[in-house]
What we know:
CATH architecture of the largest domain: Alpha-Beta Barrel
Strand order of the largest sheet: 2-9-5-4-3
CATH superfamily of the largest domain: MutM-like, N-terminal
CATH topology of the largest domain: N-terminal domain of MutM-like DNA repair proteins
Largest sheet: 5 strands, mixed
Shape: globular
CATH class of the largest domain: Alpha Beta
Helix content: 10-25%
Amino acid sequence: MPELPDLDVVADALHAALAGRPVASARAVMPLAVRGTPAELEALARQRVARVARTGKFLDLQLERDRVVVNPMLTGRFQLAGRGEKAPSGVAVELSFGPRGGGPPPDAARWTTGAGWLPADGAPVVVRFRDPTQMGKVYLLPAGVERVIPGMGPGEMGPDALDPALTLDEWRARIRKHPGELKNLLRNQAFVAGIGNAYSDEILHAARLQPFRKRSTLAPEEVDELYVAMRVTLGDAVRLLRERVPPTFEKQVRDHLAVHNRGGEACPRCGSRITQVTAGGFPTGYCRSCQR
Length: 292
């Protein structure tokens, strides 16, 4: 499942590659993945890209007039390709873009500057959203049309986990309202947005906290340590993935994780065996020795 670090890198890369380009064509290879009408999809043509951004675990393509919001769910991935480049299997939606003048946008992420994988401004570009399980959804949001996106409605999405506005004081105030298990809390997008199954394990390992422990049992210093672990773990992952992911943006890099999906291996901190259990259909990895 793409999470905050994965989508942060994809959004930065696509913004640098696409901003200023006009949509040449939009094609629904798997129409069931699209929430919108064929006419709305066709109307994307000739609109220029204003911005590509990440909102929680969604990718938001903002055009001159309309928006396209993608929820990749468990298996959705993105491909940045040249026109004519062979498409992988499982493509749900394909957007083609024309050339642009003036180079990358001035607000492109610094790490993308001069990147060898950036397509030439005069060359056409194709972005494909592929999802073999067809769980992900592509929402078309024409200007003036209200369309509910599950997970983005009022009260459904909390502050972004890396938002500077989510200060330690704000974190303390928000977490007091949630007495449940810590892993479920971190995965609750209404509490904080962007964290999924993998990085919740990593954050809790960094904070030395058990995933099934109740928030109501945390001491004040543990609440603060969890906040720091969240910011450091996600920030470090974003920086690592900027180096490891391009130009194959459909690749999901997970080999840097300390405990997630590493059941039976040695804990990198204390050397004890990592425990992996499946709860609610999702694997949870943690160390019984150094997570309290």
